[in-house]
Amino acid sequence: MRVAIIAFDVNHHAGPARVTAALVERLCEDHQVSVFSHTIEGVDLSKIKHYEVPAVNRPKFLAYITFLISSTIILTVLSLLRKRDFDIIHGYVCAFSTDVITFHFCEREGLRLEKANIIEVPHRSVLQKLKALDAKIYRRLAAFVEGLAFSHNSPKARIVVSQSMKREFIRHYGDAAESIIVIPNGVDLKMFNPANRPLYRDRIRQRHGISRSDLVLMIAGGDWERKGVSYTIEALSLLPRPDVKLLIVGSGDEKLYGQLAELKQVRERIIFVSHTSVLWEYYAASDVFVFPTIYEPFGLVIVEAMASGLPVITSGIAGAADVIIDGVNGLLLREPSDVNDLATKIESLLLNAELRKTMGEHAREAVENLSWDWVAQKTIGVYNRILSHSNLERPRVSMPGRLQENFHGAGAGQMRKP
């Protein structure tokens, strides 16, 4: 099968870029894969054909529109020169001329939350105001292009990463979104593993001045306004125990949130880690993963923490909450802004080491079938369905033998809950 993948970034760092890299690595084992991206990193270029798509990096709205235009032009030129011969064109951004689009965010829902001030973007300083303006323009542009994906000339298949995300699209686009296919994101079960605990726990703690007896909470990701970092800091202030520390891993406004921590008198108990390429080591150093997100279509960090054997406290609205049974393999918040409830749930885990251990074990079990091989198998199933409906005289495509074995060994592709 000849597959073209369109994505702004392809790498193993975080978010959609990591998802794309994981799929590309599995597809190229047995198929001809062409990648159209602005940047690519950590993928064996000898196994794929890469087309570098010109685009600016900042501001975000301009990066989006320049990539959209450039990728469309490149595909059009290749078509005119009769050099574009793909069975499937799969976009990980809302690109034109695609057969399949995977959405990682419902832009109209994000726009609604911003207009209602449910997600409040700080805009005190000049820099914050410029970032807020960039985000505002980007969201409106992306929401407009997203709407085109549900027009008459829409792709043959649309994929989202959670059931809650599908419901959001149906709410905004009605019957046009009913045919959406749900394929959750996967997790690298070898990289994120409870076996990392004895390997990295002491090293990471020593690096950041955390003692072996301290209890460590962790939250990870960017977009701190949306992911509930302020709620986590407030909940920490309700736990007046100097032995409870908080690791905030990811990029965000450290100055602003540091000031909030000082106001809540917990600054000395918080460690900011602005960037790391070894996130699994930080899961190993932690005791509880906290993620009171306001809006999260999926949340890779949630399933990574679960795969690492950590008990997770997150919002019921998070897409990855699909694999959580409240009280069994994690704890769910009804309202992410309810810091008293968050503090109570944190304390219930910190006071009970056996509960942390048991819940962490169940968390690992819940995601053991959610491998990237499984995601690739489901995605190829979508490709085959499109080719079948197009009445193309091509044999059905199967996964490589190794992936087929892994897939069947995982229970025929069904996510398993304990």
Key descriptive features of the protein:
single chain; 418 residues; alpha/beta; Rossmann fold; 2 domains; 7-stranded parallel beta sheet; 6-stranded parallel beta sheet; 15 helices; globular; disordered C terminus
Shape: globular
How many H/I helices? 15
Give Rg in angstroms: 22 Å
Q: Can you write the helix and strand succession as a string?
A: EEHEEEHEEHHEHEHEHHEHEHEHEEHHHH
CATH architecture of the largest domain: 3-Layer(aba) Sandwich
Q: Return the CATH topology of the largest domain.
A: Rossmann fold
Structural class: alpha/beta
Count of strand segments: 15
Distance between the termini: 36 Å
Integer average pLDDT: 90
Q: Largest sheet at a glance?
A: 7 strands, parallel
Q: Roughly how much helix do the residues carry, as a percent range?
A: 40-55%
When the domains are counted, the total is 2
Strand content: 5-15%
How are the strands ordered across the major sheet? 5-3-1-6-7-8-9
Spans where pLDDT lies below 50 across 5 or more residues = 392-398, 404-418
